[in-house]
């Protein structure tokens, strides 16, 4: 017998630094504070915190927890729920790869700006009061958009950005090629230093005259009317949470797979999510303290200054820093800080992809550096599209359609865990008609309600709610009748209350209990949210986003930003279509992803027993396995079993053994 060993983080602190580094990125600095000002100041924290605790953290627990249980990446985690769900993992990793390709160019632009800050044409010391000159320089010179024609199509390659992209991908390769212990050590610096620099920028900003004006706009104003009058604030808050904590891209599943079995998943998820949110919150004070000073010296109100996105980090903020004593060094420090924030996230995306590849039978035993070299080389080649003078246009369009991808992948993940896991057992207990009626009650009514809210009678909130409640109760009643008929006809020794429990919550609570010895306790509210709340909310948010209109009254899906259909809208829509296709292919033809299946010796779930090792290439029949409380059985290839106690003796340092 040979041991199937899996690399692990050198310590929980290393895992925290790596995971927080993956979560914290550009959006914490240039997007979150701006959203607060745009959506009613402190009022934005209400939908943000609700999205964090009721959507973001539960999905984070799902990804870290099942990565830790299965000790593998996204594809086989969701394949562990059901072989037809492998496509969920493929879709999430595909989305992550598409995102890191353009994210790498964002980092490259930061590197380009850093090098330009040493030149004589440095625009950040310009006396321009609102950063307009600096922003024009960034768009025209660094991105290279000054040569774009009226049609907005690319005309040339910006070779400086090609070189910076090559540097970024080389750093990604060197940072991830030697295993997660190496990544963990690097992130002590690449995440630790930005935390220090954040407080440096904060303290310096609070010493500037007029800083109070910026802080007031950031959090001193509470316009609660936006919560009802600007409906997109809710989908924006969820989108920010998804982007910010790094869920739906396979990152946290991969990182969780390198944690020892037995780590406290719920605690880990809260530490990561709250640390990320705290970084965003403090960043807002640092940013708007500087903008308050600029407003004070220029006489321009804070809300009329560029305070979001590229205009902030390449315009107003570095312009403020450039006016300080030793200003050029402050500007360089800002760009270096942004580089560190970005490169951590790029490391994480690469790790998510490599984990899936290395956990297949074809690449088992392959040197990790070879896989990372392939990922980095392919990523660099694909990123060259963004190194053209139209790079910002390409980035903007793909970034917009990624919002649809995050919502749909988040739905797929929760649906796999909450509805697909154990469905054979539920059907056996309750009957297929009752299960189908219950699913209809939960999901079909949402489309009717959304049609009323966003289509037929926009703004008729109560009409949609009433329609939803009527539909739900009618089909819930139908499912109860069908359940009663099935119990009578099948001779099941099952009371109606037991049948209703099996129909509604038994599978997800069973799932929670089966992984508990490996993940420690996960609260029961997680089960309710994953099955009965989050999938429904994500459907509503997806439809809300999809039905949005441009200023010209056109559907935003297919007409975003006024970009030409070819190549921009086509590429954006293809981004979404590819992800949906990845899921659909696995659902309809599960054998299509057989090459990505777990090699023998890994963990898998069955509806009646968790922790059984299965040949992942085949769908497994439901097996009657004697349940042992608080024990996960790991079946060896010869039929032997190892209990969780056997594993814990090794302190989680290795997986089950497999036949030599």
TrEMBL record:
Residue ranges, compositional bias (Polar residues): 649-660
Location within or outside the cell: Membrane
Transmembrane segments: 12-32, 44-66, 87-115, 158-179, 186-206, 233-255, 267-291, 330-350, 371-388, 400-423, 435-454, 460-483, 524-547, 567-589
SUPFAM superfamilies, alphabetized: SNF-like (SSF161070)
Predominant location category: membrane
Keyword Lipoprotein appears in the UniProt entry: no
Name of the protein this chain belongs to: Chloride-dependent neutral and basic amino acid transporter B
Organism, scientific name: Seminavis robusta
